[in-house]
Amino acid sequence: MTEHHLTTPLSRDEILELKAGDIVYLSGTIFTARDEAHLRILELTEKGQSLPFDLDGAVIYHCGPLMQKAEGGWEAVAAGPTTSARMTEMTPALLDNYNVKAIIGKGGMKDIAPVLEGRCVYLAYTGGCAALAVDMIKEVKDVHWLELGMPEAVWVLEVESFGPLIVGVDAEGIDLFGEIMERAGETFDKTFN
Fold first, then answer.
1. Which residues pair with 44 in a beta bridge?
2. Domain CATH code at residue 146
3. What is the pTM of this model?
4. Residues annotated catalytic, as ranges
5. Number of domains in the chain
């Protein structure tokens, strides 16, 4: 297990160095995106329209933050990860169209390893850390599509040493979540069959 301190935007070489089980701390810009944001991104892509933000080398954070108005903008109150499984079906199209290099979320994404292979990693962040995550958000730089609702909008966050994040699925296709589920299933079968 190796610890990595990376700054966005990420390169392909950087993510290829990450191995399942490694620890990552991110600094730079990350983008929150839940279900509705993914749908909007893919709708605009299908229509040939450009996005109001740049996803080249980007990190997408599966997060529905709680924000409050502050002088001159916004301030994060809570920003923990949301369950990534809901975005699994939209991720192949996202990665086919944009150079997203990392996804942060919780709970893993079933059968996502082949989709990520060679181009993206999945970084797991501990659920229940919504208030702690705020300490690593240095600035809310922008917000897009607020009409979708606060948790569904795309928030552009400047973070510093955001983590610890665990490489749950690396770019070589090793999926810690899949391995754990497989072992749990085998144990269950041995125990109850």
1. none
2. 3.20.130.10
3. 0.91
4. 38
5. 1
